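so im writing up the methods section and need the Pantothenate kinase record in one place, dumping it here so i stop losing it
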Amino acid sequence: MSFAPAPIGETGQDPVTGAGSDRLSPYRRFSRDEWASLRADTPLTLSSEDLTRLQSINDPISIEEVVAIYLPLSRLLSLYVAATQGLFKATQRFLIAERERKAPYIIGLAGSVAVGKSTTARILAALLARWPNTPKVDLVTTDGFLLPNAELAAAGLMERKGFPESYDTAALLRFLHDVKSGHGRVTAPLYSHLVYDRVPGEERVVESPDILIVEGLNVLQPARLPRDGTAIPFVSDFFDFSIYLDGHEDDLHRWYVTRFMKLRQTAFRDPRSYFRKYAEVPEAEALAIADRLWTTINLPNLVENILPTRQRASLILSKGASHRIESVALRRL
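--- predicted struct ---
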């Protein structure tokens, strides 16, 4: 049984209202070809070798995909960043605060497990860093803000890893506040997918970026409102632009299982891997384990916590069954 709505463009429904018409939609929708035509003269600065280096396992990407989808997005973001810098200078003049440090432009990237967020984030970061004015671009994932496994285990939350309650949201908010406030050097906890945990004593340093991409499952989720009415900011309150990478539930399920089986032949075989045990079981048992992990953990998290945030994004990229982005929805200003 399928719980998740189809991606934009598949049923003709609007991602927010569910209506079959664009009349009430806050989004303007583009077919792949319509979006590709908006590239204008944005240059292609990535090679096939770059793509091979940037893509994640089981997330195919081609030069044609970069040209059709990511170059128009890079052009749009260049216009948005320039406009935001103009607003910052106007605010400086108004506040008579000419010495105030320019705040980084922060882009949030959300979506399900296995939808390809890591590849999208890395490609976008590489393109933005190669603009003519060579801005400093940093990329941070919210995995580092997952609570350590010891704390999750003590609280009985290991089977809820990736759900909102498994994150140190207060630390993530402090990190984004400090970055947005123009602090010169800000640190984030470092996470290892190999050991499936934070790396004790290790940090990811972010130092005065012009653009920061923040990628993770939870970046568009609202804060849990306290009963006393105290105002708590959303993570997305610190974003200047946000992207939701979308896919149909059946495809996400298939991509997750395929990735799991590929990792079983690669990373899971490392003696240090948290998932080493899965490399030793028979293939049929491994398939059953992957299905169970999707059905009991990743699918509920998608339906309950991730998919409902789709309508909060500035831009929605909808993938087809082959990982090819088939349509784009841009929030109207």
